[in-house]
Amino acid sequence: MNKIYNPKPDTWSSILERPTKTVDDIEATVKEIFKEVQKKGDSAVAKYTSLFDGAILPNIEVTKQEIDEAVLSVPSDLKEAIQLAKSNIKKFHTAQITAQVNVETVEGVNCWQEKRPIQKIGLYIPGGTAPLFSTVLMLAVPAKIAGCNEIVLCSPPDKNGKINPAILYAANLCGVTKVLKVGGIQAIAGLTFGTETIPKVYKIFGPGNQYVTVAKQLATQFGVAIDMPAGPSELLIVADDTAIPAFVASDLLSQAEHGADSQVILVSTSKKLIDAVELEIQIQLDVLPRKEIAEKAIANSKLIFVENDKIALELINEYGPEHFIICSEFDDFYCNGIYNAGSVFIGNYTPESAGDYASGTNHTLPTNGYAKNYSGVNLDSFTKAMTFQKISKKGLQNIGKAIEIMAEAEGLQAHKNAVTLRLKAIENEK
Amino acid sequence: MNKIYNPKPDTWSSILERPTKTVDDIEATVKEIFKEVQKKGDSAVAKYTSLFDGAILPNIEVTKQEIDEAVLSVPSDLKEAIQLAKSNIKKFHTAQITAQVNVETVEGVNCWQEKRPIQKIGLYIPGGTAPLFSTVLMLAVPAKIAGCNEIVLCSPPDKNGKINPAILYAANLCGVTKVLKVGGIQAIAGLTFGTETIPKVYKIFGPGNQYVTVAKQLATQFGVAIDMPAGPSELLIVADDTAIPAFVASDLLSQAEHGADSQVILVSTSKKLIDAVELEIQIQLDVLPRKEIAEKAIANSKLIFVENDKIALELINEYGPEHFIICSEFDDFYCNGIYNAGSVFIGNYTPESAGDYASGTNHTLPTNGYAKNYSGVNLDSFTKAMTFQKISKKGLQNIGKAIEIMAEAEGLQAHKNAVTLRLKAIENEK
């Protein structure tokens, strides 16, 4: 752990620098697989599934029978936990539905805005040791509320051609329309171009390794939208002497176990707290099954002492953390002043893992400083805001002159004509 | 003009194909200028301003005096028109403000969502023959409502080192914080990296030529967000015998005058209307100052006859037009059924140019099929949705068990520990 006391503002950006990854070498591989999937469809997908996942599958679409088996095999306490999480996520995202915005800007000029669902979406759920069924909930639940009518989920099969049952259970529970056993670059390429089996979608959501991240970026060059740019997960905690060191340490470690490149930062106005948290981390770290991973992330972590809360807030806004925990006497000060953070957790009894799983907020959040300019996934991520307008004759008379003048000043005569013709017709009716 | 009768659905995508541009040759230039601006700052910007705009400027920041001169030189009828447009845009975008979403998902678990402004934004306004002061309104007005505190506008100077007075007038009227005389790739690079004079921003908005478009795409690789991917402007009109052919023709032409690559499409259930519109286009085209440009776009335009409105709607949703005008007896059918369009104009007295300038809706819209997955610029484009949560002891007891079970099932023990520690502490208090 690196303890840093009173860093000067001009050193903040280097202290808070994130680990950057070079993707140039990956890009060539991704482009090649994209080309092949675009040209050869399912057969290219099968080739790479065999190569990367070691599975040869007669059929990549998960069958009704496989879903039924999965539903039976998931333990009932896990089912109940998933159902509670789903219920909370549903409540919070349903509350995000916005009414039509309707304004008569001047008499006879009616303008409105409506959100309409993105019709076809793809969800990517990684495989591997940690089956992220929680991410299925975070993506499929709002997609369903938004009204997306085609929700395709791709996840890599294991060597036996299976997807983790909890993922299938969650997908079925949340109304995913199709589950496909395909992962990695070939999954993203399939969703981008469409194949005989994989539907082409308009937007792709979900986490993934470096290959998936680069593939999602490449997909945007072919007209597909993505949820947000990805990066290693990160947590920043601001804490003072009202915080409980063991709790703070447990939150820092829950971030650290994600990966060796996870970012873990504590900012405090109390040197005493910093020392206490440092000690607690050592105690708790020793018994973690993912100790090796967490240890590496913790080695790079920063424990930063600053003179006062004002400086702390400035530093935090400059960093823009994905997750931001506030355990401070002055939590209102931080809540009101934080502009750059993905999701904010307030108080000693609000661990980050609550938001990761079950409180109702979304866990797909902007990392890598993108909290400065991107929203986390929310209901609107699955919709587009469309505008409508209907103008009466009276309305056109009210704004027509202004349009003519502006169009002429911009040198666009045909824009002006479209109004002039109509105004003349109205005039002639009299 | 190409008249097409009853095209089969499997030919739609080729009939409606958009002109694609290759950007590979531009990319190298853009990358080189980015590198140089990143390294050398203002001096690199000055070099390219001299090279591309033919202007050598002692100072690229527009002064108070230049603003004052511009305000004096804009004719008063244009000022009034701009003020009316601004007032309507302000009304419509202010109505888009969303209240905090606050939900207690289960007892003691409080979750809320708030929109907070993106703090630093850049607006790009092209120079050239058509000074797009209307775009200044469309971007700066919602930015101001959202509460962005740094609004930087870049626009290329003419050979005399000047920016069009109407652009300066609009920028000043709308509260732009800084106007810089810099255009093209060097402007986007400056906003991306920051220079001695140009502030680094978090999100870049605004139209531009191919170079600017590629530069904006490249900016996203350096952590900057952009409004949306760009493409040539497009208009699709659906019209039947209730439409007025001269009006329809005038709208098609107002789209066509944007550029030779503009997309102009008419879909109709009436052959009679198609013929009448074709005739009207010839009559109106002849007197346009931008006839040469419009003629080229019109030559590529499509007049498509289909058997019925159901087929028409399917075809339109497959295309996903940026601008969609409905002049039909069945306007409700189209309004309710359209899922993929940027902005919708309803009725004979609602020309597209109303939305381009003064009705109140935004004219920065998704083109090139992006209406399927992107919103047009709206108030939320200038904000990020952030989530907050505060959980009481009681709340954690209500959801803690579910979090523990899910974290364990995902193999994330430290996530579980963060809850277990707290639940034990609560238990021990008893």
Brief summary:
Chains A, B: Its cofactor is Zn(2+). Chains A, B: Pathway: Amino-acid biosynthesis; L-histidine biosynthesis; L-histidine from 5-phospho-alpha-D-ribose 1-diphosphate: step 9/9. The structure is a homodimer. Chain A is built from 17 helices and 14 strands.
Descriptive account of the structure:
The structure is a homodimer of 430-residue chains. In chain A, helix 5 packs parallel to helix 6 and helix 16 packs antiparallel against helix 17. The first copy, chain A, is globular, with a radius of gyration of 26 Å. A six-stranded parallel β-sheet of chain A has the order 1-11-10-9-12-13, with helices on both faces. Chain A has a five-stranded parallel β-sheet with strand order 6-5-4-7-8, with helices on both faces. A three-stranded antiparallel β-sheet of chain A has the order 2-3-14. The model of chain A has no long low-confidence stretch (mean pLDDT 95). With 430 residues, chain A is an alpha/beta fold. Chain A has three domains: 146 residues, Nitrogenase molybdenum iron protein domain (Rossmann fold); 207 residues, Rossmann fold (3-Layer(aba) Sandwich), CATH 3.40.50.1980; 37 residues, no CATH class. The N and C termini of chain A lie far apart (82 Å). Chain A is built from 17 helices and 14 strands. In chain A, helix 14 links the parallel strand 12 and strand 13. At the A-B interface, helix 5, strand 2, strand 3, helix 10 and strand 13 of A face helix 5, strand 2, strand 3, helix 10 and strand 13 of B. Strand 14 of chain A pairs parallel with strand 13 of chain B, so a sheet runs across the interface.
